[in-house]
Please model this.
Amino acid sequence: MDIFASLADGFAIALTMENLLLALLGCFLGTMMGAMPGLGPSNGVAILIPLAFTLGLGATPSLILLTSVYYGAMYGGRISSILLNIPGDEPAMMTCLDGYPMAKNGRAGEALSLSGIASFVGAFLATWGLIFLAPQLVKIALLFGPAEYFALFTLAFATLGGVASSNQAKTAFAAAIGIGLATVGVDTQTGVPRFTFGEVHLYDGIDFLVAIVGLFALSEVFIFLENRHGEASTGGHKVSVGRLLPSLSVLKQCTPTMLRTSFLGFIAGVLPGAGASLGSFISYTMEKRLVDKKNTFGTGDPRGVAAPEAGNNAAAGGALVPMLALGVPGSGTTAVLLAVLLALNITPGPLLFTQQPDVVWGLIAALFIANFMLLAMNIPMIGLFTRVLLIPPRILMPIVAMVSFVGIYGISGSSFDLLVMIGFGVMGWILRKLDVPLVPIILGTLLGNAMENNLRRAITIDNGNWWTLVDSPLAIILWSLAIIGFLLPIVFGKVVKRRMRMAKDREGAVVD
Amino acid sequence: MSDRVFGLVGLVIAIGYAWAALSIEESFLSDAVGPKAFPLIIAAVVGLSSVVIIIKPDAAPQWPSFGRFAEVGFAILVLILYALLLPELGFVIATALAATYLTWRLGTAPIASIVSGSLTSLGIYVVFHQVLGLSLAKGVFGF
Model:
C-alpha cells in the first residue's frame, strides 16, 4: 500500500543514529520539563524552539527533537497530577481524580506506569489515525481556494476557545491582538511599512518566537514571583512510589477502557474547538458511566487513570490532523508545534504532503519513535523523574528565565528582541491575571499574515468583489461552522466548565 | 472593575491601531484590497470585543498586594537592565547577577542565591556555549 511505503520512507529518514539520540534527548528533557511544576508542554517546546533553531539543526532532526520534547512533556505532566494532585496543565486535571487517590493508597508507581501505558496506547492509536485520516483531509483541502482558506482561518479562531470557553469576548480580543501583532512590519504585497513607528527593528515584523517565549515562559516567572511558590507547596515532597508495574489483571481490566477512550479522544482532537482537555473529560465521564458499576471511580480506580490519559494523548495526536493537513491547528498545544514548523520554514497544509512528503512522514515516524522511547524510558526511570519534583521552583524559575533569554538572544543577537520579549512577558502576566487566553494571541501572530494574504488574494482574483468570500458552498459551510462554533460556547460554555469543576470537586470530596 | 479598565484600554488600543492603519502610506502599486483594509477589520474586532468586555465584565481577579506588585515591578526592571547590559558585561557576569537576583527574590537565602545564580550562569555557559557551540553575548571581558 501507498501509505505503508511512505511510512517506511519516513522511518528510513528518522532512523539515523543522530536522530535517535536527539529523540532520546528530547524525550528525557521533555519528561523532566513536564514533571517540573509550572512548565507544561507549551512552555517546554517554546523555550527549546529558538535553541534548536540557533543550533543549526536541519528540518527533520529539529522536528524529531521538538516533537519528542512535546510528547515527553505530555507524559511528564501526569507525574505531578498523580503524586501531588497538582495538574501540570488542563488536560491532566482529570488524571488527578483517580491518580492521586491511587498514590495515597500506596500505588503511586502502579498509577504512574499505568498512565504511561495508557498514554502510549492513546498516542500510538492516534498516530495511526493521523496516518489514515490526514491524506483524506488533504484531498478535501486541495479544493480550497483563497476564499475558503480565509473562512477556514476564521473558523480556527472562532472555535479556538473551545466548548469550555467561558468568555468568548476575551478569546476574540486575544485572537485579534495576535493577528494585529502579525501585521507589524513591511506589507508583503505592496512593500509599505506598517505599524513600525519608524523603528528599523520592526520592519521584519515581530518574531513569533519572541512572542511565544515571552508570553509563556517569562510570564510564568512573574506569576511565581508574585505568589512566591518557593516557600509554600511544591518542592521538598518526599513520595514513596511503591511497586512499579501494574499486575496483568489490572492491565486486562484497563485494556477495553484504553481502546474506547483512545478512539473518543482522537475524534475530540480532530474536531475544531474540542482539544485535549475535552478529550480527557469526555473519556473519563464516558468510562465512568460504562464500567463504574461499583462506584469505585474517584477512589483510586486504575481505569479512572487509564481513561483520561489515553483520551488526552489520543486527542493530542488527533489535533495534529488539521494542523498538518490544513495548516490550521485546532488547539493550543498544536499551535506551538505549528510555530516549530514555521520556524523551520515549513508551511503545513495540503501542499506539504505532496511537495515535502519526507518531512511529513519523517515527522510521523518521529512520533512513533518518541512513543516507544517514552514507554521504554518511563517505566524504569520513574523514580528519577519523580525526584525532579524535589527541585524547588526558586532555583528552577531563574534557570527557565535565563535559558529563555539565551534562546532569543541566539536568534538575532540584539538586545531589542530581549526587550520585546520582556514586554510580552509582562503582557502575558497581566492577561493571565485577567483570564484572557494566551493561545489565541500566539495563533494570531502565527497565522495573521497567511490569513491576510488569503483574503487579499481572494478579493484581487475577483476584481475587488468582497462577496467572493461567501461565493462557494464550501466557504458558506465553513462560515456557518465558524459562527456556530463561536456562539455555542456562549450558550453552553458555562455549563460544561461547571460540570468539569463539579466532577473534580465531587470526586475530591470523597478522597479528603 | 478590572475588566472594565481592561476593556477601556482595549478600546484605546483599537482606536490607536485603526488610526495607525489609516495613516499607512499607500504605495502606487497596490492590490485591490490594499494594506489598510485587513488591519481595520482587526481593529473593529478588538474594539467590539472590548465593548463587550466593558458591558459584561467577569469577576475581578485577585490582584496582588502593593508589595508583591513592587516585587514583580523590580523583577521586570532587573530583566530590562539585564537585556541592556548583556552586550557590555558579557553573558556570564550579567546572567549570574540576574539569576542571583531572581533566586533571592523567590525566597532563597542571600549567600545561597549567589552560589545558585553563579552556578546557573556557568552551567548554561558550559552547556550552551562550550558543548553546543551557541554564540552568547561576549561583552568587554570576552565571556
Notes: Residues 67-131 of chain B form one domain. Chain B touches chain A through 69 residues (CB under 8 Å). The two ends of chain B are 49 Å apart (CA to CA). Residues 66-89 of chain B form the longest helix (24 residues).
